[in-house]
Amino acid sequence: MDQRIKNLKIDIIAIGRLLWEKELASGLNGNISARVDDERILLTAHGTCLGLLQDKDILLMKTNGELLEEGKVSTEKLLHTEIYKSFVDTKAVIHTHTTYTNAFFLANETLTPEIFESKFYLGDVKSIPQTTPSVSDVGRVVEALRVNNIVVLRKHGVVTMGKNLFDCFLLIQYLEEAVKIDAISRLYSSEKVTKSSASSLSVMGETSPRSGSGGQSRKEETNQTNKKYKLFSQEQIEEIVRIVNQDHQVKELGEKTNMTMDLAVQLNETGETYSFCFERGRIARVGNDPNVEFLITAPANVWRAVFNREIDPFVATTQKKMNLRGDFAKISKWYAPCSRIFELWQQVPVE
Q: How far is C-alpha 168 from the geometric centre of its chain's CA atoms?
């Protein structure tokens, strides 16, 4: 056994134990895999306990499904192999049956976290129907993973992918924590209603704290002309500048936070770059310099997802679908104006 496989088995055993200790896995449920190379992965065997994994419980196989050593591989092998074939940069996949997440998604289709940390790492978490004990319709899972590294299978569990096993673990933990917070906040809200007068009940349905969670979707602005732009075209950039600079909310937030910085965006495939010089929230100049304080790079499919409202740029960055060069802590102080600017970007959809 080569050293890389030995090391990956050690990592899988450690993550399995961590999932178990944090009560994110139970019984004989769940499976873990890691990419060895372009053609091979390691996947936990069928009927194993993630908290008590041993070397023999982790099997080497090809992404085409061929098992390379003796054993009975997980019944979710199709799920794992299709994810690796669809996402060549993915190095790890975890599937577990988390208690609170499963309970939440029995009653809801989407979770929109309210806590900043969860918003950064999770974004809107959507669920897809699951009608069989093992995942048979992998295509829907793959499509969901294109816009978020974690997806919920209703009546079943969660699937997450990442650059390493710990990234996958963190997403599962963030989601389980987010649904716990949502449940607790509902209890507090119910307690307030119970203590209030009957007239307050009608007001309760209109209060904003509940509107962003439990499957409620945020009201989105629409592009008035329904025009779509060529990705990273001069016309698209000019329209972004126009919309941002005429927005009163950006002006107010930019002045309040003194948002003055240089931010560039770059297309991976071509290296095409546009740099924006912000002065108190307003775009004062546009250039093509990648050597600025903040640089966001991503492949075309991710940029399209951002501009077409399928993924939040902050989430894409924390999930490593996009790469941010610069001090994230520094740019986070401009979270409010940046969020508004990203909303406006999405009024300029692309082809």
A: 11
pTM: 0.81
- Per-residue pLDDT tens for 166-195? 999 999 999 999 999 999 998 887 766 555
CATH number, domain containing residue 53: 3.40.225.10
* CB distance 51 to 25 below 8 Å: yes
Q: In this structure, are residues 57 and 47 in contact, taking their beta carbons and an 8 Å threshold?
A: no
Give domain status of residue 300, yes or no. Answer: yes
CB atoms within 10 A of CB 289: 12
Residue that has been written with the tokens 């250039």 in this structure: 287
CA distance 321 to 146: 9
Strand order across the 294-298 sheet: 282-287, 273-279, 261-267, 294-298, 323-325
Percent of the chain with pLDDT over 70: 90
* Cβ within 8 Å of residue 151, ≥6 positions away: 125, 126, 127, 128, 141, 144, 145, 158, 159, 160
172 and 254 co-located in one domain? no
Q: Any idea which residue has 């000019």 for tokens?
A: 238
Residue 269 bridge partners (DSSP): none
Q: How far apart are CA 115 and CA 103, in angstroms?
A: 20
- Residue 260 Cα to chain centre, angstroms: 28
For 248-295, the pLDDT digits (tens) are 999 999 999 999 999 999 999 999 999 999 999 999 999 999 999 999
User: Same domain, yes or no, for 177 and 270?
Assistant: no
Measured from the Cβ of residue 186, the count of other Cβ atoms closer than 10 Å reads 14
Rounded CA gap, 347 and 332, in Å? 22
